[in-house]
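Q: My labmate handed me this sequence with no annotations at all. I'd like to see what the chain might look like in three dimensions before we decide whether it's worth expressing. Could you predict it?
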Amino acid sequence: MNPCGCLSAHAIQRGMDTKKKLPRDINELAAMIVGEATDEDRTPDKDSKEDSGETPEKNPNAVALGRLGGKKGGKARAEKLAPEERKEIARKAAIARWEKNKSGN
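A: Here is what I predict for the chain of 105 residues:
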């Protein structure tokens, strides 16, 4: 920038304007507005653990409970259902698989 505060022709040609580019995602835009309103310098992309490649810590007890429920879930549900109900569920699943196959070709 010049001392007068205006951009030179060279700076304009190189695309060096002073405006910050607004994010297209509505959630990123909202985060930016809140950050500016509260004078926070951090951006959600740089500070989140998901984007940095780090995995969040998991509670081992919760993992064990989830695995335990997952191991017996389908079998326990099938035992509680009447044979007619199981047959109807299987029929709907087969139809859904065939419909997905038809639309894929």
